[in-house]
Amino acid sequence: MFNWVGNKIKYIDKIKTLTKNFTTAVDGMMGSGNVLIELAKTHTIIGNDVIPLMPNIYNNFASFSISENHFNNIINDWKFDEKEHYYNFREYWNNKYLNKDYDSTFLLETFLLLKMCSNSMVRFNLKGKFNQGFRGCNGPFFQNVDINKWTKNLIKIKNILKNAKTQYYNLDIIEFLKLININEKTVFIFDPPYVLSNKMYSLNFSEEHEKKIINFIKSNELKFIYFNFEEREKIINKQIRDFAKDYNKITLSNKSASGQNRIKTSEVKEVLITNIEIH
After folding, report:
1. 3-class DSSP state for residue 47?
2. pLDDT of residue 214
């Protein structure tokens, strides 16, 4: 539902198949949280992200106002038909975000911001400010049919969360994993920033961070699903390739569009690695 580069919702059918025999799903690098929302219908979900935005959004979801009128009030106040409107709004949004001002309008303001940002890349600078540019538009950016659809979908998410067992954290991934009770009914989902695609992310995530996650998996008896690039532009991530040798591997894609305006297509090998039996 929320824009997010690298979103795994496109693989939700595979994820649901692999997680169907578990009662709890843990995602330590949840990004948009879209995958966990889908799993919340059938699982207890525990989410975490080092960026506090989405954990705080989901922890406060019940307090947010959601209606077409609320959407339209924001759009009428800001217009959004010129680049300057977006950047003024982005500065306003950053002030609220950095001051943890999660008032009743923050959800819809965040939703609109992510719809307008360039290439669906959610990026923050070292000061913690959202700094992604404007996608651009010809004429009015938002249409009534879209606002109606988004309102219904957000209300649907609100109802799912209302009836679900959920926990959300904002911690370093390794510190978060130390909190989780590992048992046979819990499945772990790992979707870290791809080291071979670090231009897509502003996070300081390296091969050393990747190694810590892999060592955690190997050192604990847990069931897991792990996403990453095994290869990009003929450069091999040896750590991922070696890790995959001991487990089941599914090749998800062999190409990716990730440049500005999605013009340039890169040759990649994206894989899903798991110790869950694949049928």
Report:
1. strand
2. 94
| Ramachandran assignment for 111, one of left (phi > 0), alpha (psi -120 to 50 degrees), beta (any other) | alpha
Range with the largest mean pLDDT of 42-56, 202-216, 240-254: 42-56
CA atoms within 13 A on the CB side of 95: 5
Q: Using the 8-state DSSP alphabet, how is residue 181 labeled?
A: P
65 exposed, middle or buried (CB, 10 Å; 0-12, 13-18, 19+)? middle
Q: Please state, as a whole number, how many other Cβ atoms lie within 10 Å of the Cβ of residue 88.
A: 13
Asked if residue 108 lies in contact with residue 61, where contact means CB atoms within 8 angstroms, the answer is no
Number of H helices, E strands in the chain: 10, 8
Assign 5 a pLDDT band (cuts: 50, 70, 90): confident
Q: 135-161 pLDDT, tens per residue?
A: 877 667 888 999 999 999 999 999 999
Q: What are the structural domains of the chain?
A: 9-50+171-274 (3.40.50.150), 62-162 (1.10.1020.10)
Residue 114: its H or E element: helix 106-116
Give the pLDDT score at 41: 92
Q: What is the dihedral of CA 268, 237, 29, 122, to 10 degrees?
A: -50
Pick the range with the lowest mean pLDDT from 25-34, 155-164, 204-213.
204-213
Nearby residues of 78 by Cβ (< 8 Å), 6 or more positions away: 85, 88, 89
Q: Which token pair is 86?
A: 């977006």
Query: In the 8-state DSSP scheme, what is residue 126?
Result: T
Closest of 235, 243, 187, 236 to residue 213, by C-alpha: 243
Query: Are β-strands 223-232 and 186-190 bridged in parallel, bridged antiparallel, or unpaired?
Result: parallel
Q: Is the pTM of this model over 0.85?
A: yes
Q: How far apart are CA 52 and CA 170, in angstroms?
A: 5
